[in-house]
Amino acid sequence: MISNLPDKPSQPGRSAGYRGVLETYRPLLNIPAHTLTITLLEGNTPLIPMPRLGQELGECDLFVKFEGLNPTGSFKDRGMTVAIGEAAGAGARAVICASTGNTAASAAAYAARAGLRSIVLIPQGKVAAGKLAGAMAYGAQIVQVLGSFDDALNLVVEITRSHPIALVNSLNPYRLEGQKTAAFEICDVLGSAPELLCLPVGNAGNISAYWMGFQEYHQLKRTGLPQILGVQAAGAAPLVLGHPVDKPETVATAIRIGRPARGEQALLAAEQSGGEIIAVTDEEILEMQRRLAIEGVWVEPASAAGLAGLAAQVRAGRRAVRGQRVVAICTGHGLKDPEIIAQRAAAPVAIPVEMKALEAVILPKEGEK
Length: 369
Ligand code: AN7
Known about the structure:
- The chain is 42% helix and 14% strand.
- It is of the alpha/beta class.
């Protein structure tokens, strides 16, 4: 018997009674009664205090909501449990999505759990290894489209119009119903909404879901509303440029999207909240990925974009966050995209099985400290 463990974890996600986002928040979700509970106990991800980084970024009270700790390694699981549960309850036999990777892995996992067939369309190249492997492991049929994510999305929308296959991209409203639970969790843990929320924006479902969630919780519980800072990658920033991008390019492949399906809704969310949508460079994204990792939080590149945007704004004197509570949404785990790290880090040194060789590589040299 270990006596120094707390009776109750501060976040119920790790406790025996936790039942996933759908059962935890079902009365607050706008979903049909036929929706089944198909869960991997997603959600209830930790809100990690980041005192050192918060200080550095402008003396704010910073938290990272680490959505990479969901069952398939990204925030997509929140929406997928609901979308797949609804589709299964409605009698669907197969689901389909277009994806830069995370949606594919999540759809495949939940479809497998529900006993449904899953088909995922991925854009040509540039899907991170951990995501593709996930979709394969969970048994999806994977189709690579020789085009962009936006082309793939057009195809799945079209095919679901004429065939009985359920669409589980975030055009599906039940995805957003599930994803909005992250806003509820933040309010539940902090006691109210933070002053500022920053997050990456790709197809723009997540920012739309957060804004919906914060508004609904505020109506119900007077939890307040955050400003929302949405961040795109400079090479894939249609919402900043004000027009679609035909050939989106960014190291953050998750958000390599040129025609966001919920673009209008995202712009409205940012505006209504008093926030905005901005763009950051790939260098800024990778720099923030490194900065987060030395706090012990390894996220995939896209997930660092939100905080990279905040850092850029503070640096440019466009935003002061001193004394504010800021929540950064880190949407996916670093393990999703190991190649990004391997490409930039030095390969490990190899040594023979000899103490002298080990000493030579790890101990300070003569004259060094
Ligand atoms: C890690 O998987 O679009 O703005 O097909 O994987 O709601 O699209 C992924 C998006 C942010 C952007 N962070 O969210 C897909 C896909 C990560 C992501 C986003 C994605 P949205």
